[in-house]
Each structure stands twice: as C-alpha cells, then as structure tokens.
C-alpha cells in the first residue's frame, strides 16, 4: 500500500500495518486515491491512522509533535472522513459482503393498516433466514423505507436504492409500482410488489415486475362468477373502490367479465371522504342491486360495513384481498356475517406447513396476522430466486432465476408459484371464504378457483 510519507523513520513505524480492519472507499469511487483507516494496538500503545498518518495515539507515541506535513494531512483526512460519514460512503473493508435488497413499504400512509404488518412479515422473514445463514451463505441486507403511500417519495427512495446496488426490490402500492415499472426494466432490477395489478404480469411491457399473489382482475373474475352462479343473468352488482390506481386496477376487466356472464355493473363508486355510504347503499338496494364488491383496504371496508348495517341492506357483500384484517373482523362484529372474501393467502390459523414455520420462528400476535403472513411468503419467494441465482447475483440473474420457479411451494400460504419468461403472474388460483358470526371466523366455501 502506497502511503503518504515523510521520513524513513515514519515509514518504518507503519511498515507492519495490515489491511485487516481498514476502511476503504467503495469501488464506485475508484477514481479517488483509496483512503485506509485503521486503529491498531501495538505493544503498549495504539495508533489511529489514515494511509499511515497518525490521527490519534497513546502510550509511547502520545504527545509527539506532528510535523507540518502530518498536521496538514491529519486535518484534511478528518474533514474528508466527516464528509464521507455524512454521505454514507465510508465502508469497512472487513465487513462481510451482503446481498442488498430494497423495500418500499407503507407503514403510516393511506394503506398503512395492511401495509405495516405486511412490511414486518417481509423484514422478519429476512431476519429469520439471516440467522440461519442467509442465502448461499451470504447475509441479505434489506434497505427499506416507509414511503407513506406517496408516489414521489417512492421514486425518490428508489433512486437512493440504486446507489446502494440492490439486486431486487419488494414494493407495495399500485401507483408507485406502475410508475417505476419502466425504470426497473431499464435498470434491470426485479420488483416484487404487493400490487396485484394484472398489467404488471405482462412481460413484454414490464419484464422486471413479478406478481406473487392472484391479480386483482383474477380476484374480481372469481367473485363475479360466484355471484352469477347464485343470481343468474341480468343480476345487478356494484363496485366500491379506493380512489386510486389501486382501486381502479380491476375495473375494466370487471366490466368485460360481467358482460360475458350477462351481469350488469350498476355503478363503480370511488370511496372518497365526501361519500355518504349509507345513503348510497340504500339507493343501490332500491335500484335492485343484489351484490356489492369492495376493492379497498381494511379501514374503509369497515366503514362501509357499518354503513351497510345502518342502511338495513341485504345485498351480498364481497371483498378483494386487502379488504380484511384482524382489526376489521374484530370491530365489524355481527355486521360482517355472510361477507365473502377473495383470499389471496391462507388464513393464519390454518394448519399448513408454511404457517407452522412462522409460528415456530415468530410466535407473536402480529406474526399470526393475515398481512404479516402475506409479506413473509412474498419474501420467501424472493429468497428462492436469490438462492437459484447463485453467489453474488445481479438483477438479471435474479430475474432469470425467478423465471425458473415452477410450482414453488410457500407451504400452502399462497397456491403454488410459477413464473416463466412469458408470464410473471405467479399465482392463478384462490379460494373464497365466508364469515360466519356463530364461529366468529372466515371459513373456505370453495376449492381453489382460477381467475383467468
């Protein structure tokens, strides 16, 4: 290692320095001269040095006056190290290598009621697997943020993740996932989102997006077929939806499916703050509507169920994947009776290998929640892709590895997961569950149904 230097005495003093424990700039800054930092105990003194220049000293060397060259170098490197620390560019050479993965989660935004436990499921799975040795012997480092369901913040954080050289990202919302889809394709970073927008599965348009769960469009097709079987052609149904890209995602496919079944979609109603849901539900029932589908998250769904009870409505209620969580079940009470739910995953109280694994690893109340389980299983799918990609994977290698998953099992949490180069729709089937107040639980009322 070339050192800044003066006297031969000083050169001799530092000639025994080793590389172990040094701090160096990352390779991306290779145009700079490498900066090596070390604190080393030798005999009865220690030396803290930068490229051989003493910053701090004790014992035999304490109090030795620095010559002018050393003093200038010391001042320069201290300032430079402070700047590096502030910008996060100072790294330790003996830190074990990691596989970096990004996380864009909503903990405190508009969908935080389901986003927070989902995020914790992802994070706990990664921590659990790291405690068991990581992937191919390498620890996975999750670099994540709470983007508060804000597309601009998601984009800003994505750009910071690029600098951290992540090889894959677990994302969240539909709006931000759609906004980032062309960018991740350009940057070749696989993106496994909790958005189940069906357009994300089309590899010719979105080659680096992977959808683990059943798409919103497939969920709503399954619901419409169930409704048609019970009510026949000509029956009217309405859709209440989140006023966002997420809420609107399956609407066009719902219209097409309803037309093929001879159903009538009476209205598509955004659930914004100005909506009087009680009055709207009464008007729908008076118009002969027989069913209501909800495409939203848990808290707005709870509010609609309360309005449904207040309106004295008797229409069949259906909910897509994000409408139900434990708090919603507890707070809705008897008003939830008969509610039919398109469950993308198994319920946490079922006896399945994947759920037993969670209970053994993380036996806490939150780990027994529905969206936690969903996050855990999504991370499990990504880890399998990382494993198949081999040591030191790139984004392209992770993508190719995910596309080799064929019937991958999450222990029954999701139905079997399959990706191919032609389709990134990982799961095609789900079950419908119905809430029975007498048992105070959801129970499956169908076998696995395809939404294609």
Question: How would you characterize this protein structure?
Answer:
With 452 residues, this protein is of the alpha/beta class. The protein folds into 3 domains: 85 residues, no CATH class; 189 residues, 3-Layer(aba) Sandwich (Rossmann fold), CATH 3.40.50; 147 residues, Response regulator (Rossmann fold). The strands form 4 sheets. Strands 11, 12, 13, 14, 15, 16, 17 and 18 form an 8-stranded mixed beta sheet that branches. Strands 7-6-8-9-10 form a 5-stranded parallel beta sheet, with helices on both faces. Helix 9 packs across helix 10. The longest helix has 20 residues. The protein is globular, with a radius of gyration of 28 Å. The chain starts with 7 loop residues before the first helix and ends with a strand. The N terminus is likely disordered.
């Amino acid at each position: 290692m070339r050192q800044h230097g003066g006297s031969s005495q000083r050169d001799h003093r530092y000639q025994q320095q080793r590389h172990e424990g040094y701090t160096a700039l990352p390779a991306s800054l290779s145009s700079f001269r490498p900066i090596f930092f070390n604190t080393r105990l030798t005999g009865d003194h220690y030396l803290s040095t930068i490229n051989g220049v003493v910053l701090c000293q004790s014992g035999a060397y304490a109090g030795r006056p620095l010559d002018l060259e050393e003093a200038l170098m010391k001042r320069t490197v201290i300032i430079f190290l402070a700047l590096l620390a502030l910008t996060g560019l100072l790294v330790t050479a003996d830190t074990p290598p990691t596989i970096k993965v990004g996380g864009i989660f909503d903990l405190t935004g508009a969908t935080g009621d389901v986003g927070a436990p989902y995020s914790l499921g992802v994070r706990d799975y990664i921590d659990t697997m790291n405690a068991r040795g990581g992937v191919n012997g390498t620890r996975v480092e999750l670099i994540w943020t709470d983007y508060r369901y804000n597309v601009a913040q998601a984009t800003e954080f994505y750009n910071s993740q690029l600098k951290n050289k992540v090889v894959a990202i677990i994302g969240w919302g539909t709006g931000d996932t759609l906004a980032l889809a062309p960018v991740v394709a350009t940057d070749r970073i696989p993106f496994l989102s909790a958005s189940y927008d069906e357009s994300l599965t089309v590899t010719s348009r979105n080659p680096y997006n992977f959808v683990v769960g059943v798409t919103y469009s497939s969920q709503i097709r399954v619901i419409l077929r169930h409704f048609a079987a019970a009510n026949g052609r000509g029956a009217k149904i309405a859709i209440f939806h989140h006023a966002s890209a997420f809420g609107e995602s399956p609407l066009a496919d719902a219209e097409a499916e309803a037309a093929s079944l001879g159903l009538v979609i009476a209205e598509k109603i955004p659930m914004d703050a100005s909506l009087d849901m009680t009055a709207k539900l009464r008007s729908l029932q008076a118009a002969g509507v027989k069913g209501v589908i909800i495409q939203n998250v848990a808290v707005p769904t709870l509010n609609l169920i309360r309005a449904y009870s207040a309106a004295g409505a008797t229409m069949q209620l259906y909910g897509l994947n994000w409408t139900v969580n434990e708090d919603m079940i507890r707070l809705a009470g008897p008003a939830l009776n008969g509610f039919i739910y398109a469950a993308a995953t198994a319920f946490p109280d079922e006896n399945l290998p994947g759920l037993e694994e969670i209970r053994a690893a993380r036996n806490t109340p939150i780990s027994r929640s529905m969206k936690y389980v969903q996050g855990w299983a999504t991370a499990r799918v990504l880890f399998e892709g990382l494993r198949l990609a081999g040591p030191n994977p790139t984004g392209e290698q992770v993508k190719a590895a995910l596309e080799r998953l064929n019937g991958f099992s999450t222990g029954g949490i999701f139905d079997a997961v399959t990706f191919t180069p032609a389709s990134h729709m990982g799961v095609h089937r789900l079950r419908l569950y119905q809430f029975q107040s007498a048992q105070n639980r959801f129970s499956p009322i169908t076998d696995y149904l395809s939404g294609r």
